[in-house]
Amino acid sequence: MVTYSRKILLVFIDFFLVNLSVYTALLLRFEGTIPGQYINIYLQATMLITLCKLVIYYFFGMYTSLWINASVDDLIRILLAITSGTVFEYLVSLAAEMMLPRSVYIISWALTLLLVGGSRLSSRMLRYIKNIYKMNRNGRKRVMIIGAGDAGSMVLKELKTRGAGHYNPVAVIDDDKRKHHASIHGVPIKGGRDKIIETVKKLKIDEIIIAMPSVPRETVSEILEICKQTPCKLKTLPGVYELIDGMVTMEQLREVSIEDLLGREPVRLNTDEIAGYLTGETILVTGGGGSIGSELCRQIAHYNPRKLLIFDIYENNAYDLQNELHRKYGSRLDMEVLIGSIRDRSRLEEIFEKYRPGVVFHAAAHKHVPLMEANPAEAVKNNIFGTYYVAECAHRYNVKRFVLISTDKAVNPTNIMGATKRVAEMVIQAMDKISKTEFVAVRFGNVLGSNGSVIPLFKKQIEEGGPVTVTHPEITRFFMTIPEAVSLVIQAGAMARGGEIFVLDMGKPIKIVDLARDLIRLSGLVPDVDIKIEFSGLRPGEKLYEEIMTEEEGLQATKNKKIFISRPFEIDYHDIMKKLSALEKCLGNREGLICKLAEVVPTYNCPYEEVAAAREILTTGDEETEEGIATETMVIREVRTASGT
Predict the structure, then answer these.
(1) Domain of 499: which CATH number?
(2) Antiparallel, parallel or unpaired: β 141-146 and 479-481
(3) Helix, strand, or coil (residue 179)
(4) Same domain as 282, residue 176
(5) Measured distance CA(212)–CA(239) in Å, rounded
(6) How far is CA 327 from CA 94, 288, 321, 472, 486, in A?
(7) Sheet of 563-566, strand order
(8) How far apart are CA 212 and CA 489, in angstroms?
């Protein structure tokens, strides 16, 4: 804000400079000797005209702008104000028949523009000189900008003003050949992406800033792959939708993230189709405080549900989410947090009876593979029976649509978690056969930043100085971001007709060791030099790669190119209920439970040799009786003893 005293000071400065300009113009016009008649005109008229000029300057905002941040717009305002003042002076002099030579008006206009404009830009010039001094005094990071468009231009301006004490932009890269060998704000454009590595070495670049907010993410990912070959720290701008006002500031520059390296394009949704089944509906999200569940709640809230029910056993996360949504939506969102377990049938009955939800997103599950290997009964109770209890309530209380969040680990599972999630899929497919509720599952792989992701673990290990532990040098996984996965889950829910297993396009599998190296580089460190990578060996139940479907399922395309439908198996409701009963009887017996789970899921590649051996030995048909379970357990233990395990 321009203070009153500063405005008065500017008025006095302009009064002096305008008169000085006219007097100097007369001296120049008459080569130092001004005729007396023109001295009289100057003394009689120019002072009054000067006051009128100051009024004109005022209306052009020359006493209200913060000139320390002067821009091209401010320069144009100065030009218009001074030109208008000079034209006014000429017309008044002409009307009063007190004319000075015409050349005097032109010279005085130029001098006024130089002196008054210079006075306004002096503060910015002083700041620039101060920044130059800082540049020479302080060690600054040598920066290369990738992108010579509007965003790149604004980044350069910010670096040369606010960031001048810390950054020295020395090169620009752009694939547009028309811009090569030119410069932008005095910084040379060295060429296209093929010049990145060469320029980094030649100019000793410390930091690279990606300034291309509007280009496809795939293109940014390709450029980042090149930048990863340099020792430079990487920064980028947010997407163009976050720069809607067209301005770029230092605060908007952020570190390049793993999400940027994935290069996945934004999800395109049929919002009308989604609104058709979410708007005005009571929606229940189980596991609503978790990484997937909370994002489901955030995106569902956008579609104006009649009521949003957040159901979770862990109150802290649910409470944080409640506060977040309250801050964003206030009274516009009718929301309630319900604490409880999906294993508690009476609690589920109470909720369904009271709220009568129309749509259920079932995200509650135990997901950590090693923990579930050590605690198989808990995985079965939560992932299988918890799913059955929620699905049963959805059926009996006439829920319109039930969406199960599943996992690629359910395909040819090699671990307890994956096997239990496959049974959960079978349960909802069987329920769909006997219910008016549309039961569907959505299957996808790892999501970056989720509670079960390796990313938080790697980041913590890097912060502690390493080593970063990877189970195997060849292990790969599919990855997508949490918002992308949830958006596609919601879109798949809109496509549901009952019984489908939707499979999300996860892109290309990524080596976990490459992911670890990328995270180390993004932290400004050198893999295997600053941070060591160690291979710890595959954990129980872990496989080298994941699959999104079995050979028997196949995939059918949908109208959304990122969502597919697997060909469903024929699953009989009564048969699956019989198998659940057998599993329930085994809950107190680890070996018997694993063996029974392997029977329920024929594609379960059980890693326990003793279970496989026991299944070969046992050919009787009494497995589902207490006697049969005891027999299985005895045989398993005998096999273990014989093998020395």
Answers:
(1) 3.40.50.720
(2) unpaired
(3) helix
(4) no
(5) 8
(6) 65, 17, 10, 44, 22
(7) 335-339, 307-312, 282-286, 359-362, 401-407, 438-444, 501-504, 563-566, 555-557
(8) 29
Domain stops at, among 96, 123, 150: 123
Give the least confident one: 27-31, 292-296, 408-412. 27-31
531: which 2 tokens?
Answer: 């941070």
Task: Answer yes or no: do 562 and 577 share one domain.
Answer: no
Q: What stretch of H or E contains 476?
A: strand 476-477
Global pTM reads 0.63
Q: Give the C-alpha separation, 19 to 36, whole Å.
A: 17
Please indicate, yes or no, if residue 165 is contained in any of the structural domains.
Answer: yes
How many residues are there in the chain? 645
Q: What is the mean pLDDT of residues 205-218?
A: 83
Domain that holds residue 206: 138-256
415 and 495 co-located in one domain: yes
> H-helix or E-strand containing 21?
helix 4-29
Q: Is residue 261 one of the residues assigned to a domain? A: no
Report d(CA 256, CA 232) in Å as an integer: 12
Nearest to 591 by CA among 388, 309, 377: 377
Based on the fold, state whether residues 278 and 347 are members of the same structural domain: yes
Which residues carry out catalysis? 409
Q: Which residues contact 151 (CB under 8 A, 6 or more apart)?
A: 211, 212, 213, 214, 237, 243, 248
Q: Identify whether residues 276 and 326 lie together within a single domain.
A: yes
Q: Is residue 60 within 8 Å of 14, Cβ to Cβ? A: no
**Helices 345-355 & 387-396 angle (0-180, nearest 10):** 30
Q: Residue 264 domain-assigned?
A: no
Q: Which of 206, 218, 231, 69 is nearest to 145 (CA)?
A: 206
Q: Are 610 and 551 contained in the same domain?
A: no
Q: Radius of gyration (Cα) for the chain, nearest Å?
A: 36
Each residue's pLDDT tens digit, 214-255: 787 778 888 888 888 888 888 887 654 344 344 445 455 666
Please indicate, yes or no, whether residues 45 and 89 belong to a single structural domain of this protein.
yes
Judge whether 430 and 572 are in contact, CB under 8 Å.
Answer: yes
User: How many domains in the chain?
Assistant: 4
Joined together, the tokens standing for residue 53 give 């000029």
Domain boundary among 224, 256, 288: 256
